[in-house]
Each structure stands twice: as C-alpha cells, then as structure tokens.
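Quick one before lunch.
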Amino acid sequence: MEKVLKWAMNCEETARRISLSLDNELPWIQRLLLKMHFYMCAACRESARQVQDLHDAFRQMSHPFEQNESIHLPLSFKQHIVDELKKHQ
Ligand SMILES: [Zn+2]
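Model of the zinc ion complex:
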C-alpha cells in the first residue's frame, strides 16, 4: 500500500498510468489514486485531459463505422428501414 501511495504522488508514474486508465486496464484503486493526484496536481490534470482528447480522436478514427453509421450502411438497408417505417404509419 505504501508503494501505491508513493506513485500516487509521483507525476512520472501518473503519466504512465493515464494511458492505461484510458484503456480500462487499471484496477479501481489505482484509478482512485489517479483521481487523487489530479486533484492535487494541475499539470497532470491538464495532460490527462489532452491525452483523453487524443484518445477519443484516435478511437473515432479507428472505428469510423460506429461513429458514422448513417454513411456506411448499405443503401438497401436504409431502404428497408424506410419501408418498415412506412408500414407503421
Ligand atoms: Zn502530477
């Protein structure tokens, strides 16, 4: 536990764990300590925000299908939806 508290105060360790936390690879206790560090350290809070932004942007690029379903759906499927909607009018 002492070791855990030690890295909670350490900016270098925090930076290393930020990316892990983004990928949900951190145990909850370490997430909690990460949040504690952000509470005390504005510099890491800011860098975490930037990393988060980049992470989100990257995720959107690597999963365009999820983000832009309307664009990537086949036309026939769209037509199917329109037909179904008409039936229920
Ligand atoms: Zn820090």
